[in-house]
Amino acid sequence: MASPAAACSLPTHTAPSLDDKPADEAGLRRLRRRRRRRCICICALVTLGVLLLLGVTLLVLFLTVFRVRDPTTRLLSTRLVGLAPSLTQPNFTLLLTVAVHNPNPASFSYASGTTGLWYRGAHVGDAQVDPGRIPSKGDGVVQLEMTVLTAGFTKDMAQLIRDIEAGSLPLDANARIPGRVAVLGVFKLNVVAYSDCHIVVGFPDMEIRGQDCRDHAKL
């Protein structure tokens, strides 16, 4: 039979040894490192997703809103405004009024441009386009003074006489105008507008009898 002292004795617990504490701290450090790596991976995935979404959005914008649509130009009138001094043959100055339509959802601010004029392949005129601005999906009027070189017309006098007798002069004009389009007031893209026109001008009234223009823009 067990003694009373043995029956009343309480169970004893063994105190953790000092060697167990470093093991627990090492485990906590490993757990913290795993959580940190998990957070970094989640942040990286979220960032990658945002960048992909932003890239797709920009691609859609460039294919729709940012896509530059070709402008349209139309010569409204020509008017003789005076003679230009020359040492060889008298040249004269024409005032050209051109209507421009901008179909883009962004305004077009253009710098100085150049325009050339040809008569049956002979260079007969030049003009400088002053800086200006065409509103988004809007219209503008550009006026420019062109110096017409009479020497170019007289290279083939027989043909010139025939055109004068017919009362019409066939001319070709081209223009190159650099500028910028401002999309949403934030994005600014460099654009060059080109225009190539075949024009028939009446003589001597200088009225526009016909024209065919091909306009395009390049980023």
Secondary structure: number of strands: 10
Q: What count of structural domains?
A: 2
Distance between the first and last residues' Cα: 106 Å
Give the DSSP E fraction (strand runs of 2 or more residues): over 45%
Instruction: Kindly state the percentage of residues in helix.
Output: 25-40%
Which key features would you list for this structure?
219 residues, alpha+beta, Immunoglobulin-like, rod-shaped, disordered N terminus
Describe the structure.
Residues 1-22 are annotated as: Disordered. It holds the Pfam family LEA_2. Keywords: Membrane, Transmembrane, Transmembrane helix. It is a single chain. The chain is an alpha+beta fold and 219 residues long. It has two domains: 28-64; 72-218, Immunoglobulin-like (Sandwich), CATH 2.60.40. It is 28% helix and 46% strand. It is built from four helices and ten strands. Strands 1, 2, 3, 4, 5, 6, 7, 8, 9 and 10 form a ten-stranded antiparallel β-sheet that branches. A hairpin with a 2-residue loop joins strand 4 (113-119) and strand 5 (122-129). The longest helix has 44 residues, at 20-63. The chain is rod-shaped and about 110 Å long.
Outline the fold blueprint:
Elements: H1 4-7, H2 20-63, E1 72-84, E2 91-102, E3 107-110, E4 113-119, E5 122-129, E6 132-134, E7 138-148, H3 150-153, H4 157-166, E8 168-183, E9 187-202, E10 208-218
Antiparallel strand pairs: 1-2, 2-7, 3-6, 3-8, 4-5, 4-8, 5-7, 8-9, 9-10
Summarize it.
The protein is of the alpha+beta class. It folds into two domains: 28-64; 72-218, Immunoglobulin-like (Sandwich).
